[in-house]
Amino acid sequence: AQTVTQSQPEMSVQEAETVTLSCTYDTSESNYYLFWYKQPPSRQMILVIRQEAYKQQNATENRFSVNFQKAAKSFSLKISDSQLGDTAMYFCAFIPSGTYKYIFGTGTRLKVLA
Amino acid sequence: NAGVTQTPKFQVLKTGQSMTLQCAQDMNHEYMSWYRQDPGMGLRLIHYSVGAGITDQGEVPNGYNVSRSTTEDFPLRLLSAAPSQTSVYFCASSYSESPNTGELFFGEGSRLTVL
Question: Which residues in chain B are closer than 8 Å to A41, comparing Cβ atoms?
């Protein structure tokens, strides 16, 4: 079975500091896509960042970057210069190429402290 | 720009009642899907559709029905509600026929309580 594991249920970080959220996944597929989604307290989920497994270069989006280690099946999210608006639940998600079934992790609740 | 619209936002049902959660999108997305979110379980896929007239089961389809008669709408039906269906439900769509390369756009969610 394909799974996504987020081992940190809750984390906190001081404003302006850096925090890393971990995600590991299990699959026998060679080509797939990985995502981080953010769910603020208002509940609407939005995409933070996307990584294609065949690309070795780590994706970055402004203050958000990933550390993608394909051999280790690891996909961590780094948030630099944390802001109060980053307070949210963060979900790691995975989808094999050619399928339509996203698999989500259980989420990490991040709180940014003033 | 409405995006993905879900109704109702809140609903309380009694065991055995039926209801339909509505989902509509105005982005002409071919792919639409329903998830349920439970504490400690993350999001789990219930059903999905890759176009009008085409639906398929996800991870937790039991107790739910779907249909896709138009590109815009993808309703989720609970035929006989059970307390185990108490959850927050999310509808999501994608702009690509291959959603694994794209981005899921989510609705605001519908909180359902079954007594």
Answer: none
The b-or-e profile of B94-107 (16+ CB within 10 A means b, else e) is beeebbbebbbbbb
- Rounded Cα gap, residues A21 and B99, in angstroms: 24
- One-letter amino acid at A33 equals Y
User: What residues contact residue A37 under an 8 Å CB cut-off, 6+ apart?
Assistant: A45, A46, A47, A48, A90, A91, A93, A104, B104
What CA–CA distance (Å, rounded) separates B85 from A100?
Answer: 23
A-to-B residue pairs, Cβ atoms closer than 8 angstroms: 62
The helix/strand/coil state of B2 is coil
Q: What is the per-residue pLDDT for B99?
A: 55
Best to test chain B binding among A7, A29, A44, A89 (most B CBs inside 10 Å): A44
DSSP assignment string, B46-92: EEEEEETTEEEE-S--TTEEE--SSSSB--EEESS--GGG-EEEEEE
Q: Is the pLDDT of residue B96 over 70?
A: no
What confidence tens digit (pLDDT) does each residue in B3-35 have? Answer: 999 999 999 999 999 999 999 999 999 999 999
